[in-house]
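Hi everyone,

Forwarding the result from last night's run.
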Amino acid sequence: MLASSEKTIRPSSRQLRAFQPLDRLSDEQRILLASTARIEAYPAKKRILERGATDNMIHYLIDGELELISADGRRTLIKAGSEKAHAPIARLQPRMYDVISVSRVIMMSIDIKVFEDLLESAPVPEEEEPGEMSASEISRPTGEGLRAMFLRELRNNELELPSIPSVAFKVRRLIDQPQTTVSDLGAAISQDPAITAKLIRACNSPLYRGLNEIRRIDEVVARLGLDTTRQLVTVFATREVFRTPNPTTQKAMAAIWRRSLEVAALARVLAERLTHLSPEEAMLAGLLHDIGAVPMLVRLDSIPGLLSQDQMLEKLTLEVAAEVSAATLKHWQFDDAYVVAARHCRDTGYSSPSANVSMADLVIVARLHAIMAADRHSLTPDWDSIPAYRHLGSPDLDQNGALAILAASQDRLEAVKALLSV
């Protein structure tokens, strides 16, 4: 929690510009943020932030010197004006450190929701129009020109996002109508023979199998229920989004689809074992967390020779796809939980505002374990510093605990992968 201060005042727009990532905001956004932020002064030797607490605020050091103390006693000094002080102080929540004032300090506090909303709509740096970029600029190792191009086109609604498959749209719309019956839903699904066949196979799989084999789609809907049917139809229909006639682009899409299947299976099993969230919703969130790569690949396909540069493609995907994925799921009118999970899937420092487990927590942890499964030598962050682990039920859950759970669930994982691969 935040300690009481000597007095409270508001920061100026100019002060905000000195901090990251607030320097990305427009002047108008900084003025708006300044009206909601506050500056507070604290005496020396004051505990300002407490380890384990959650206050849903972002804090910056304006003047003085702080000491961060971790659970194992490690101490870090931060002086105002230093490189460390340009970034938020002890940003992860619940807090990983006790924050103590070494001298009299001045802190700035910003509501985390306001912070994230403004950053989401922050302007993209001015760049040349895509058609005017030279080949050398396009192939720069940093890919900054392309990154700016994607973000600019996304913000200006110029990037063509994929449409939700028609059968998934129809089913989701029908289920949202209270008067919809099992027969109505079965009739809508049966118009797509491929989806119908996949649902029947899924219903008779080890994950959903009952005493009797089912052969009719209305019986499938009755056994699965409306919510599970909706999620599975979307899962099966989404496969078509990852198809394109260009062989090079199709190869890249297939690789992303395979990784998404792995994350989906892991998210489903983790949801079953550790949470009260719907396993089907968790599976769908895992499957769609990288959906933004699809319109990016299609757009890159229009730039000759670029898709052959695998390293650049991977870097661009890492940097931009989360925002494009979130925009795609908004375009599909998915619930906010899916949008947030897509936006933060690669942010291992993300801490859900809720004390309860979120869809984003599941996708973050599932994605980390998918990376480990694919490459045992991959670099992964300090597991103790990942808030998503702390949200998955037991406070003692860590990498080894999750690995043990997944190892004991191999049969279940394989059944989910088989379901997704039909």
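Residues 247-274 form the longest helix (28 residues).

Cheers,
N.
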